[in-house]
Design brief:
The chain is of the alpha+beta class and 188 residues long. It is built from three helices and six strands; from the N terminus they run ααβαβββββ. β5 and β6 form a beta hairpin. The longest helix has 51 residues.
Amino acid sequence: MKTVSKNNNIFSLTIRSRQLGYSLIEVMIAAFLLSFAILGVTGLQVIGMKGTHQSLMKQQAVGVVQNIVERMRANNSSLSSYEFNSSTISCGGSPANCSASACSAAEIASVDIHNIVCGYGSPSTGGLKTTSADDSGILVNGSLKVECLPAGDCTAGDVKITVGWTERELGQETVAPDSLVLTTRIAQ
């Protein structure tokens, strides 16, 4: 048994030495709370990355629509040649070489469609479809459909352009199709 001394300095030193530092339980609770905070920030990071990807896909889709509309306006004498669905186009062959010889308006439309769907250069890259191991296409499972309005009649110059792609929805782990539809008049 210890005797208590009337010396307050010894008593106060003993109390201070017991209160210095943290106990193991306090450290474990702090680490546990910190780990939950880090998990929350990580979840927000994943949602932010998905949102960035959605924005990129929409931006790419707008670029595809702008590209095809500009090409159609430049070659408006052959609007009916631009009526197509990308699922029916094969990227195996190469289009006509209009820089070597003069091409008709229909051949120019064929080259335009090939470049948009299959990409440019050899090997082709930058198109809607995946054409090589190095090329994933500009849209995930991208598709493009151009229709004349009324159906099959391009004389009025009205067209409907639909660009589709697949993306993950924010906050969900399912894959959902998305699309951008533009109806416009190409001046004739």
